[in-house]
Design a protein that fits this description.
mainly alpha, 11 helices, 3% strand
């Protein structure tokens, strides 16, 4: 049997596929962060908390209101996105003209509050969310058995990520969004309500995090700390791709997920730090990130 790095090719391919699943979550979360930072200049450290709230919204909706997975994919991002809009109007909008450090500290505090509230009501133990009936079963890929739900996660993440990139970078709406954040007074002069655009942009970024939370709920256990354990890695992914670069966030998330998966085979001890090692190397060679503007 052909070997790569001393391991059979099916093992390598299987681990790359599992890494692509993790990379799909990295890409979606990084995308939301990149949208918020790129368009609003806010370092949103509460992003992991909104990811967690999206998963809990799906869990609570199922066990309390009987809302199934497919409706949760729509309702949870809307509910959590509206919560993000409320916080943006009440708190964040006062910090836009200040140093980004203030926004980082505020959102970090919001993350701690969200985690504390959910831990108080649901405890620290994980909650199981069932895989929907239509996505149960497996695919036999020859080199591995891939659960259908994980294949769905990859497809859904790629579709959402590249649709978001297309809307922001290739449509008139995206041009208006970018113009409203770069020169708000000029855009306001054309009769466009800039505060509403800013509010909607933040809500959309939060909604992406919540959507990633719903997608992850059947894969991992839903816990109050599920976001805090992931957001540090996601920030590293965003830095590697380039702060504010939407395309960079998507590509870096997918690639780094596979690199992390491959590292688990070749050198498992380094799998938890490989992303940060790559970040350090990228920052030394290209401080703006791989796709960032100088």
């Amino acid at each position: 049997m052909t070997e790569v790095f001393g391991y059979p090719v099916p093992v390598i391919l299987g681990q790359l596929m599992l890494g692509l699943v993790n990379g799909s979550f990295y890409a979606m979360l990084s995308l939301g962060l990149a949208v918020i930072f790129g368009l609003l200049g806010v370092v949103n450290f509460a992003h992991g908390a909104f990811y967690m709230l999206g998963a809990y919204a799906a869990y609570i909706g199922l066990h309390t209101l009987g809302i199934n997975y497919w409706f949760a994919l729509v309702l949870a991002p809307l509910v959590v996105g509206l919560l993000g809009i409320v916080l943006e109007r009440l708190l964040l909008r006062h910090l836009y003209k200040l140093d980004p450090l203030y926004g980082l500290l505020l959102t970090f505090g919001l993350a701690l509050i969200a985690e504390g509230v959910m831990r108080n009501y649901y405890g620290s133990s994980g909650q199981n969310y069932p895989v929907p009936d239509g996505l149960q079963g497996v695919f036999n890929l020859g080199f591995m058995i891939l659960p259908i739900y994980r294949a769905w996660v990859i497809f859904a993440s790629l579709f959402i990520c590249f649709t978001t990139w297309f809307v922001i970078e290739r449509t008139r709406l995206g041009s208006t969004l970018r113009a409203a954040t770069e020169n708000p007074k000029l855009v306001q002069a054309f009769g466009i309500n800039v505060p509403v655009i800013v509010m909607a942009t933040y809500g959309a970024g939060i909604g992406l995090a919540a959507l990633a939370g719903v997608l992850s709920a059947p894969v991992i256990q839903v816990t109050p700390l599920m976001g805090s354990s992931l957001v540090i890695v996601v920030f590293a992914v965003v830095v590697i791709g380039g702060m504010g670069s939407i395309f960079g966030a998507i590509v870096s998330g997918l690639v780094l997920g596979m690199v992390e998966g491959l590292t688990k085979v070749v050198y498992p001890e380094a799998s938890t730090i490989v992303v940060f090692v790559i970040m350090a190397v990228v920052l030394m060679l290209r401080p703006a990130g791989l796709f960032g503007r100088g």
